[in-house]
Amino acid sequence: MKDVHPPLVSGLSVLAPRYRAVLSDVWGVLHNGMTAFQPAHEALSAYRAAGGKVVLITNAPRPAGPIHQQLAGYGVPRHAYDDIVTSGDVTRDLLATRPERAVIHIGPDRDLTLYDGLPGRLADDTAGEIVSVTGLLDDDIESPDDYRDRLAALAARGLPMVCANPDIVVERGDKLVWCAGALARLYEEFGGEVIMLGKPFRPIYDAARARIEALCSGPLGNRDILAIGDGLPTDIRGADAQGFDVLFVTGGIHAADFGDPEAPDLALVAARLRSEGLGAAAVMPRLVW
């Protein structure tokens, strides 16, 4: 149900009976980049206990394996979800089919698992044939402006860029940090070709739907799936474009836009949804059961 005036609901339990599966965002819904939100993972656990399936969908630019470990480190228990689909997963699928084999990696070393087992090799800026951006090397101190000269030179060579995380910024604790999407946006400004993967783009949703349908042992209609997210340009836009009902968690990345983070002003929420051309089935400040 697409509604620019979605109701405020008290918990996931109000919506749960309508849906066979949940497709939940991770960063901003289940954790803040430092610690888990206990009521959120308890809500997903309760939904699973009632018979629903939960697949996490994240713009993390790494394969699902390391993300399982990361979530456990933050305090998200494994019983809160059935599976994970990452932007890294769909990026690997794409890189495996591309003709370019010399890959220029832009991002921190923690993302190098993205390339494990792929047919290509990592190369420097002079020998590379394709750019793969997963983030900034040190997002604690760097900004996209630090990459202007490098990106301009790569774009001038006509190299395509694969962006493994379309997010522009995310919250880490109480501050915002830049993501790969900010570098991809700058690359486009220099005239470079960018292939965007992850939310809000279709490939990650196709992969997530396939995973959900495998868990449910058969096809599902769009209205059988509830998407949960906090990011308007990624979670909400992506799910809305796929025809899924959306639970908008307002207390995440956009919390400051809607008044009291624990009691959002629904008029402000409605105005923002209208201005973005988006809708939602319901609103909740934080994910709870």
TrEMBL record:
This is HAD family hydrolase. It holds the Pfam family Hydrolase_6. NCBIfam families: HAD-SF-IIA, HAD-SF-IIA-hyp4. Keywords: Hydrolase. CDD domains: HAD_like (cd07525). One of its GO terms (molecular function) is phosphatase activity. GO terms for cellular component: cytoplasm. Gene3D superfamilies: HAD superfamily/HAD-like (3.40.50.1000). SUPFAM superfamilies: HAD-like. InterPro entries: HAD-like_sf (IPR036412), HAD-SF_hydro_IIA (IPR006357), HAD-SF_hydro_IIA_hyp3 (IPR006356), HAD_sf (IPR023214). The keyword Hydrolase applies.
